[in-house]
Design brief:
single chain; 252 residues; alpha/beta; eight-stranded mixed sheet; three-stranded mixed sheet
Length: 252
């Protein structure tokens, strides 16, 4: 181990909404080669699946937690003043499945990135309520109402940092980064939802350029554009896309 570096291996898990299930497949491929993280840095969807893995569950077990669920099971529609949905159901889901409730108690240390909406900066949670921190990290603006932690409003970590490699780069000898939002689809529909999603894709893509270069191994599943953000029933398909891409990269 390089002098001064605390961890040998770190995993970085990007945001990507429904595409986050590809993280689980990629992690499965890595652990089959006995590559396991001593720390995880994550944003948005990466925080959701990463927290469940860091809590001591294998990737396939995490996948089973979502079996039979719909988008509506994890969100609550509200009058659209600060967002169309709230993430209280997501927090309830996490609290029902997590054995540990606080970040500092996880067997695998984890850093969850969210965006401080009040002060315009990235915040990297290393302690605190897991469900609340994950909800803050996943809170896509406009779609979801901001999450309030200690009187500060938080939204999706991907707004400023969708692939938080730099957060743990100096702590790890090797960093494996899994970016499930690497490409923009060439076509899109001219409606309000599609325009908003494409705009977010531009934001997420632009803020990952420098972060990608800091990773030692970069895994980027590129054929996930056909999945809708409410396609929870296709989680197993998305899992396999991540698994196959990781195996391709690791064999190369």
């Amino acid at each position: 181990m390089v002098s001064g570096r605390k961890y040998d291996v770190g995993f970085v898990l990007s945001g990507g909404f429904i595409k986050g299930f590809a993280h689980l497949g990629a992690i499965q491929a890595l652990i089959e080669r006995d590559i396991r993280p001593q720390i995880i840095s994550s944003t948005s969807a990466g925080s959701l699946v990463g927290a469940l893995y860091a809590d001591g569950n294998e990737p396939y077990q995490v996948l089973e937690f979502f079996d039979g669920l719909k988008f509506s099971d994890l969100t609550k529609p509200v009058l659209p003043t600060t967002g169309f949905f709230e993430l209280t159901e997501l927090e309830d889901f996490l609290n029902a499945h997590l054995k540990r409730k606080r970040l500092e108690l996880l067997p695998v240390p984890m850093v969850i990135t969210a965006t401080d909406l009040d002060h315009g900066k990235s915040v990297h949670f290393r302690s605190g309520d897991i469900a609340q921190c994950v909800a803050a990290s996943c809170c896509m603006p406009v779609l979801f109402s901001p999450i309030t932690i200690d009187d500060i409003h938080y939204v999706d970590g991907g707004v400023l940092m969708n692939l938080p490699v730099s957060v743990i780069r100096d702590e790890c000898n090797l960093v494996y980064a899994i970016n499930v939002s690497p490409m923009l689809t060439p076509e899109y529909k001219l409606n309000i939802v599609s325009i908003a999603e494409r705009s977010y894709q531009f934001i997420f893509r632009s803020n990952t350029v420098a972060e990608r270069e800091m990773a030692d191994v970069l895994i980027e599943p590129v054929n996930l554009s056909g999945y809708s953000n409410v396609d929870l029933e296709k989680a197993k398909e998305i899992f396999m896309v991540g698994y196959n891409k990781a195996n391709e990269v690791l064999k190369g």
